[in-house]
Structure formats: C-alpha cells, structure tokens
Specification:
Layout (H helix, E strand, L loop, with lengths): L2 H9 L18 E2 L1 H5 L2 E2 L2 E6 L2 E4 L1 H6 L6 H5 L18 E3 L5 E3 L33 E5 L3 E8 L5 E7 L4 H8 L9 E5 L2 E2 L15 H6 L10 E6 L7
Parallel strand pairs: 1-7, 8-12
Antiparallel strand pairs: 2-3, 3-4, 4-7, 5-6, 8-9, 10-11, 10-12
C-alpha cells in the first residue's frame, strides 16, 4: 500500500496497518540525498529528518493553507535542524514572557501550536505530521559510493551511485533501470559470485572513496567493477 493510501485510511479512521492481499512495497529501503532532492513539489513532497524519509504529499493534499508553505519550500531536503534530537518535537525557544514555544526556522508551520490562545486554530488533526509514522517511506543513506556494472554479454558499462547500506540485490533493482533482464544474470566480482543478500563491502568490494580523497584524487579515479554473466538456460551443466 502506498503512502498516500495509508495516510488517507488513517484520517478516515481505517487501520493503516491492516494488510490487503494486493499490497506491495512502493519504495526502496534507502535513497540518496540526490534522489531525495528530486521530490520537491507539493504533489511529490519528500522530507527527511534523523535518517528517515517521509512523504508529506498526502498531508499537503489535505492542507493547502499558508502554514503548509514551509513544508513546500523545504521539499526534497533534510530538516533535522527543525527538531529537538531528544524529544523529536519541533525545537522550542523562549517567548517574550519567558514561556517556551515551539518554532520552525521558516515561520508558522502546519500543526505547530500557536504562541497564544487562538480561536481559529484547529487542533482536531490528530497526530502532527512529524510524529505520523504512516508517512515514513524509507531511510536516507548515510554514505554513497560509485560502482561500475559491466554486462559481459552486450559489453555495455554503467557507472551507478549506490547506497553503502544496500545489498547487492537492492543494487540489482537499481540496475533494472538500465536492463530489465538484470535478474537473468549472475553477478560477479573478480571471478567470484556475489552473495546478493550482502552489501558490497560484505562481499569484499571495499569503498575506496575516502582513501582517494586523502590522496587528493577524484572519487572516480578508481571505481570497482561488477561483471554480469548471462544465464544461458539452454546450457547443460
């Protein structure tokens, strides 16, 4: 079930955790900051904080007022600095009367309590967006690395940016954008078959980007290669 469906079911009083037979994952487990940045419109608004990515699109679909503007303006970015890392609530500061008030860097934001009594503030929204776990879709990768994927059948080569936390099978899923038959290949590194349930480093494909940086060399000076061998179903073992 996609994030928009889960959110709409919650606001309608339907248990969002109830599984449907046709439910399928909508998202990868990890995304890079550059992928996060692509989701930067009201209809496609992703935000991240404390390592998790949230899809605020269904919230903005239900709330189009001025208090949604900080979310739209920040779409596609990390907003961890909006929150107190201990309470996970919006940061607070002292007002004129020395009372702690919630605040956001870009001004009044949706679901933030007002500074004082206000008759037109609707507090019947239930869970504020920053505490709504139904909006969480993935994790933000802490580090990325380049990898070369070489198809030995077609001799095509692609350099991909992948998340260091991803398994080789998750990298295969990324490669489907280049070759929809990627699962029909055996993936190898230096002649050894990769364990697709492990990360690149767990397979011995080390990330050398920090070493290259220390030597003053560009990240793409050396990019490890993975070789794909087509599985000929007609061959006899």
């Amino acid at each position: 079930m996609c994030i928009r469906d889960r959110y709409q079911r919650r606001v309608r009083g339907v248990d969002p955790s109830m599984k449907l037979p046709e439910a399928k994952p909508c998202h990868r487990r990890y995304y890079t900051p550059s992928e996060l940045a692509q989701h930067n419109t009201p209809d496609d608004c992703w935000l991240s904080w404390f390592g998790d990515i949230y899809d605020l699109s269904p919230v903005l679909e239900q709330n189009t007022g001025i208090e949604s503007k900080p979310l739209v303006d920040s779409a596609g970015t990390d907003i961890s600095h909006w929150f107190d890392p201990e309470t996970l609530n919006l940061r607070q500061r002292y007002g004129d009367d020395l009372v702690k008030l919630s605040f956001a860097p870009l001004g009044e934001v949706l679901h933030k309590p007002p500074a004082g009594p206000r008759s037109n503030w609707a507090n019947d929204f239930g869970t504020p967006w920053w505490k709504d776990e139904t909006l969480r879709i993935a994790q933000l990768s802490g580090k990325q690395r380049p990898i070369r994927v070489i198809n030995t059948l077609t001799q095509q080569e692609h350099v991909m940016e992948v998340c260091v936390e991803e398994t080789c099978h998750e990298i295969l899923e990324r490669y489907l954008d280049y070759n929809k038959h990627a699962e029909s290949y055996t993936w190898k590194r230096l002649g050894y078959i990769l364990d697709m349930d492990k990360t690149l480093e767990e397979n011995g494909v080390m990330d050398e980007t920090e070493t290259l940086s220390e030597l003053g060399l560009p990240d793409d000076y050396y990019v490890p290669a993975l070789h794909l061998y087509f599985n000929d179903d007609l061959s006899v073992a």
